[in-house]
What does this fold into?
Amino acid sequence: MKIFTIKQELKTFLNTKKKENKTIGFVPTMGALHKGHLSLIEKAKNKNDIVVVSIFVNPTQFDNKEDLVKYPKTIENDTKLLKSVACDVLFFPSVKEIYAENISSEEFDFDGLEHQMEGKFRDGHFDGVGTIVKTLFEIIEPNKAYFGEKDFQQLQIIKKMVEKNQLPVKIKGCPIFREDDGLAMSSRNTRLNKEHREAAPFIYKTLKKARKKFGTESAIKVTEWVTNQFKKHPLLDLEYFTIADEKSLETIKDKESNKKYRAFIAVFAGEIRLIDNIQLKK
Ligand code: PAF
It folds into this structure.
């Protein structure tokens, strides 16, 4: 596996590959890799000649300083994992290499997608995500890029950015990977203490029950039910639960037959913020 920390060196390397008509699959990450990331890399390997993974803990997408400082950094283990799945290229730049002296975000208009859910609770988050993903796309110029559906809103926002800027990259969403007890895989899970780790599968269990209820009950009733489940829970604090249209990400009032819906949730387990989502059947 080749490792680059300097963008120009990576660009030069990839240009020689593009001249040989090789296709590039790209998996952007913030490191602390888990099986969910590895599944994205596997998908990328199946469909592209060369797979590039980036590891960059992007400061501009964190609205919470402590979350940024405490974000797990496990580069040695990550490198081992990437080699074990035969990743071709790791891009591991410094903050200075990406932002020079100006650590700030571009302002984006994602046609309102950015004002829902995570956008309401994490100020400036999606401007930060848009800034880093666009920058990485400009450096790598991938044919395809892979994102997990755990961050479903992020996935829709990236698709919107690509469409609005007519970027020549295909965005591929990949299903959520879960631990055996149902907890969605996330780099932040390693920060949960024992008590909160044991409590956390309640999130997905509740999502599954909500999906079942949505078959016979209104979105409002299901939302009330979920809110009550968390009120009764001694360890988990609900930040939001909402049933939204998959495309607009707007909270729905009534079910319509030609639309796809998803339930989205954010929960605090102590100081650790966990998100998850589930596709709904009508
Ligand atoms: O999903 C993530 O890990 C990050 O938001 C991403 C897409 C790598 C951008 O920093």
Remarks:
- The pocket of pantoate is lined by residues 28-30, 58, 61, 129, 132-133, 151, 154 (CB under 6 Å).
- Strands lie at 2-4, 24-29, 50-55, 89-91, 144-148, 170-174, 236-245, 261-269, 272-280.
